[in-house]
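Why Yeats family protein? Reviewers of the renewal asked for a concrete example.
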Amino acid sequence: MSNDRVRVRGLAIHRPIIYGNTAVLLTPAERESLPSPDHTHRWTVAVRSAASDADSDIVGGKDDLSYFIKRVTFKLHETYANPTRNIDKPPFEVTETGWGEFEIQIRINFVPESGEKSIFVYHHLKLHPWTATSADTDAPPPPDVAAASGPVHSWQYDEIVFYDPFQQFLNTLTAHAPTPLPKTRRRPVPFHSTHPAGLEASRGGVPEFWAGMEKEEIERLERARKVVVAEQEKWRATLIEKEKELEKLKRDLGEA
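Here is what the prediction returned.
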């Protein structure tokens, strides 16, 4: 057997990717030119490398992933013509128009020499900037607010890990090292237009993943945990007080 078809046991190598979507609100003139004038947004769903070009208006996509990804299949809502879209070369993306949000199944197939099974990820298509103006309602913000907030970005960072890779595939991976993420933040966080931070956060330009995001996310989760704990303690104290009141009422009734 060729050494290229021997697995390198005990070794794991990963490649960072992002998947998600960008959506923009269509103008009235653009909507009138569509076959379906009820469509309100143009959106692009994609699988890309995590690193971005510094001066690009595209989230991620600096590296070509075709050295290890053979095909990406996007399964759209069944109301779309040909809802299963197979993309066999970069950019691994689909652009469509529509009016509603729905879950998109994404299947990633690797190059044959990898010997790896395909994987599935899922992304909920985001069209509306759920800013502070709409946080307390079930409706998306008015069109003027949505237009002012700019494109909606909803992206997820992930790392595909290959365990015990074939030597040939390992050689391919090591020959294509991913571009490192920037060490400092140069742009807003990737969920800026769907995050409660609202419009102010969305005016900073195209979002970008950066090396400190994991630490930021941990800190954000810790702050949220403290808020939840404080809320629990508040209601616990309220419950204890009400139980004491109940016991007093029972005693009073017993003595009456």
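Residues 215-256 form one domain. This is the kind of structural detail the renewal will allow us to pursue systematically.
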